[in-house]
Amino acid sequence: MEEIFGRQQSILIANVNVDGNVADIYVNDDGTIGGIGDGIRWEHREDADLIIDGNGALALPGMVNTHAHAAMSLLRGYADDMILQDWLSQKIWPLEAHLTPDDVYWGTKLACLEMVRTGTVAFNDMYFMMEEAARAVGEAGIRATLCYGFIDLFSPEKREAECKATEKLIHHIRSLNNSRIKASVGPHAIYTVSPEGLKWCAEFAAQEKIGIHIHLSETEKEVTDCLTAHGKRPAAHLEDCGILTSQTVAAHCCWLDEAECTLLGKYGVSASHNPSSNMKLATNRAMPYHWLAAAGANPCLGTDGCASNNNLDMFKEAKTAALLQKFFWNNPTLLPAPDALRMAGNNGAKALGLPTGKLAVGLPADIILVRTDISCNTPLHNAASNLIYSCSGAAVETTICNGQVLMLDGIVPDEEKILTGAAKAARSLVGRAQSS
Amino acid sequence: MEEIFGRQQSILIANVNVDGNVADIYVNDDGTIGGIGDGIRWEHREDADLIIDGNGALALPGMVNTHAHAAMSLLRGYADDMILQDWLSQKIWPLEAHLTPDDVYWGTKLACLEMVRTGTVAFNDMYFMMEEAARAVGEAGIRATLCYGFIDLFSPEKREAECKATEKLIHHIRSLNNSRIKASVGPHAIYTVSPEGLKWCAEFAAQEKIGIHIHLSETEKEVTDCLTAHGKRPAAHLEDCGILTSQTVAAHCCWLDEAECTLLGKYGVSASHNPSSNMKLATNRAMPYHWLAAAGANPCLGTDGCASNNNLDMFKEAKTAALLQKFFWNNPTLLPAPDALRMAGNNGAKALGLPTGKLAVGLPADIILVRTDISCNTPLHNAASNLIYSCSGAAVETTICNGQVLMLDGIVPDEEKILTGAAKAARSLVGRAQSS
After folding, report:
1. Nearest CB to B333: which of A81, A330, A375?
2. CA-CA distances (angstroms) from residue A233 to A253, A255, A264?
3. I need a surface site. Which of A150, A218, B57, B82 has the fewest CB within 10 A?
4. Which of B332, B379, B422 sits opposite A378 (nearest CB)?
């Protein structure tokens, strides 16, 4: 088995369903897609290092999760069904105060395992001790854009420390020289970062030519407080601070009005919809997908952290998005299945500036195979409908990222070791918090 | 393998997690639970016909789906993202016009397979050609309460035919003499059944001492039309017709006002929440769980048919319910995980008058095992939170109904045959509809 996983090799994936057609896919040993089509197998059956029998599976570009706090997988199920402020102040923050770099490593390992299992090949992450997150991502074989959550709480002293921490992470990630791991700048939100902090983040991101990852308009309070403090709504405040760019991913976006959507469209901002988290925490409004799409913004999808979802399955998230858009905006034709699928894959890749998100010759091979010999894909009247409304990530059997096999026929190497290590770290973390 | 599945035998389930405690479960060869506790294994390791290694899995009572149209699994993904009336008149009804008894058999087989896989051991079904549904349920080994969808469209002639069809099904199901398969009376809804039809259904159900299964207050139009026609809201109209009883399951219940909830509570009606279907079809309001629970009604959970969900996974449905209640009623503390779990199991069993829905000595053994050596249950801070918010039915590894093993370690006998037969039936059905 060791020879199959995590290495560069040429791969022939035989007998899969690509956009409704029976096809084979060839992956070059440099990790790019070499060919897609009927009969590719006859060309490459002799020279491929590895042959995968697709058995009629649906071949798709891997999912891209555009808003996560991966290491929070250690907090999965630790506290739920609470009011946001109580949940944060009584449960989440006291536990996070005891987090060690080792916890971030194991939490990110667990998150990457779950992502590989459910067909996600890239994610956009904001947290702290991100050097350890980078180590876990390096081992897991998927892609990530990592940022340090910049929170200055309007204090000049704290701001200076946050700038340094941001610079440090970016230099560290550059030093890894791993094409799968990128850095971004992570001003947390307008209610935790001063205008000066936001402006520094914008300038630093532009100077380093990297992206920005921020929370935007998650709650109504954020909007009303912003109107009080700045006399304008959050998106306009971000525009003033230079945060709106085509490399910016704004998470949540629940309370944007139509003018703010137009503003995000003007700059080509990516808006990461996090429907499960928003519903669970009762934000009381759904991201206006239709306004954002019409304005030319890039609506994409994210799970948020495992403390507020409580999983990282982008298939489940895409269904929740499709249902919530219809329900909240009172129109059953909104966010149809093909659009929800695109949002979870292609739009996500675009948000992170990745060349992936579609299956095409010459692109990096980020490919997942979804079983069709399974009840959620029976009958198969319409693949997009089944993928969004009927299946979940559990139907993914094989995950390939950058041409490397990360899961094959449901097997992920080292799974047991990762589950054991993460469970142990979580127990120890809760123990430290309770005994303090 | 054949010796394990679908037979009466004594079973020792060793090393499972029951309500947070390590325990073993013994199932008598009459299908009832003989013992639950730590160390049961030492008593029965010699005499058990079958020993199942639970490997630390969570043992739960099986899920009960209180509103389905099982055979519609053949229509899964056939038409989505449409306005209700277009969807019905342009897609669903034309296809249903070509349904044969064989289709209902294969559709119900497929549905039962999916339910067994995702931990559902009983369901409440409304459709037609239900003799074939009963045949499929008989073979599948789970429990069902089946009704013929009574639709008289306010015509006395049609009403007579519907009464006969209802009587015929009940006699047929009685003749099967299968304790797992029960009949109920199925007046479709107030907008498809005349007051005379509703009254006949109520009287017939009382006479036969069986339950009633009806759609109630799914859309706002149902309420406004009812106010126009009868000068009262739907629940009050049902009360007038005698439909509200402690053996009545009312599906959807989206648009109930507080007085109607009180009415349902007064009669002990079961209200089946179908959140995915309601969101997908944009009903624009969520069942008032908190009013129903406070009034003493029995809130339970259902998936609706696969044409409007598009799956039968009660774990996913329970999460959607927990999220939708919080979101729509704007309170993150509503429908916490333990209540959502109870709604999907115990309350469902109560709705169908089943003695199951909990794990207790002497009760029929309807037991499911949910894996813990899996990312959705890692870490395991809180089992109810993980089950509702993190896992899905894919985490179920073993399903036992009435003491018979239906799935063991993810293996369901005849799965391939069922998938192939159902896929063939669905293709043929679409072919007939398109060539007509």
Report:
1. A81
2. 12, 10, 13
3. B82
4. B422
pLDDT tens for B219-244 read 999 999 999 999 999 999 999 999 99
Coil, helix or strand at residue B396: strand
Contacts of A359 (CB under 8 A, 6+ apart): A18, A25, A33, A36, A59, A60, A61, A367
> What was the pLDDT predicted at A3?
83
> Tokens standing for B22?
């390590």
DSSP state of A22: E
Give one word for A185, left, alpha or beta, with left for phi > 0 and alpha for psi -120 to 50. Answer: beta
Q: Is the pLDDT of residue A2 over 60?
A: no
ipTM of the complex in this document:
0.97
Task: Look at residue A197 and give its three-state secondary structure.
Answer: helix
Residues B300, B351: contact at Cβ < 8 Å?
yes
| B296 token code pair | 């003493």
Candidates A281, A330, A430; nearest CB to B332: A281
Q: Residue A8 corresponds to which amino acid?
A: Q
| Amino acid A436: pLDDT | 81
Parse chain B into domains and list their residue ranges. Answer: 11-61+358-415, 63-351
Instruction: Assess whether pLDDT exceeds 60 at residue B2.
Output: no
pLDDT for the residue numbered A219: 96
Alpha carbons B87 and B327: distance in angstroms, whole number: 27
**Which residue on chain B is closest to A313 by alpha carbon?**
B390
Burial pattern B386-413, b for ≥16 Cβ within 10 A else e, equals: bbbbbbbbbbbbbbbbbbbbbbbeeebb
Determine contact, residues B73/B306, Cβ cutoff 8 Å: yes
Does CATH number 2.30.40.10 belong to domain A11-61+365-409? Answer: yes
Residues B170 and B183: beta-carbon distance below 8 Å: yes
CATH classification for the domain delimited by A63-351, as one of 3.40.50.300, 3.30.70.1060, 3.20.20.140, 3.20.20.210: 3.20.20.140
List the 270-329 stretch of A: residues with Cβ below 8 A of B: 276, 278-284, 306, 309-311, 313, 316, 320, 322-324, 326-327
Q: Which residue of A has its CA nearest to B286?
A: A327
With CA atoms as reference, report the closest residue to A68 among A133, A156, A153, A158. A133
Say how many CB pairs under 8 Å bridge A and B.
197
Query: Strand B367-370 to strand B396-401: parallel, antiparallel, or no bridges (unpaired)?
Result: antiparallel
Provide the pairing of β-strand B396-401 with B143-150: unpaired
**d(C-alpha A323, C-alpha A286), whole Å:** 11
Window 372-391 of A, Cβ < 8 Å to B: 373-376, 378-382, 385-386, 389-391
Q: What's the whole-model pTM score?
A: 0.98
State the pLDDT confidence band at A227, using cuts at 50, 70 and 90: very high
* Contact (CB, 8 A) for A349 and A61: yes
CB atoms within 10 A of CB B353: 16
CATH class of the domain at B11-61+358-415:
mainly beta
A139: Cα separation from own chain's centroid: 17
